[in-house]
Inverse folding.
């Protein structure tokens, strides 16, 4: 299950991605916002991040105007490795090397077509483990200090 959410500035992109997820038959849970609802981006990030950190969803996607605010906020939740990606290379690498569990994008930054390619890369790519596992464990250590 995939968690997806946005603030008002990411709403249109969220709906675009949801249509794609439906077409691809990817299971998801929509954590809002609803159309016309103004929402603070830290709250949008918190809802998606907690769904992933708590185990309700394996991965998440969270969107705002730039993607920056939601990525900063999501990374404050223990166990979250949120990656801000506006290109497919980064979307692949954040999975292969960083085992990112939340993808962040900005609706005011990325076009709708590219955004779907980024989502596809994020969902299709696995973590490589090996030497990268040790480095991800070092991030966990930082978090536990
Ligand atoms: C909302 O205007 C905007 O500040 C927000 O969506 C995001 O870009 C923050 O990082």
């Amino acid at each position: 299950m995939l968690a997806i959410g946005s603030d008002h500035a990411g709403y249109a992109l969220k709906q675009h991605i949801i249509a794609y997820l439906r077409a691809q038959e990817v299971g998801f849970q929509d954590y809002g916002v609803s159309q016309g609802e103004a929402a603070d981006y830290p709250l949008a990030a918190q809802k998606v991040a907690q769904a992933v950190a708590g185990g309700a969803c394996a991965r998440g996607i969270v969107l705002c105007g730039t993607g920056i605010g939601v990525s900063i906020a999501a990374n404050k939740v223990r166990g979250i490795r949120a990656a801000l990606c506006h290109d497919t290379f980064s979307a692949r690498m954040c999975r292969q090397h960083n085992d990112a569990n939340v993808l962040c994008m900005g609706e005011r930054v990325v076009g709708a077509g590219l955004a779907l390619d980024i989502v596809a890369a994020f969902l299709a790519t696995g973590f490589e483990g090996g030497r990268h596992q040790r480095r991800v464990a070092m991030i966990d250590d930082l978090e536990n200090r």
In short: The chain has one domain: 2-144. The chain is about 45% helix and 15% strand. Helices lie at 11-23, 41-53, 68-74, 88-96, 112-124, 131-143. Strands lie at 2-6, 28-30, 59-64, 82-84, 102-106.
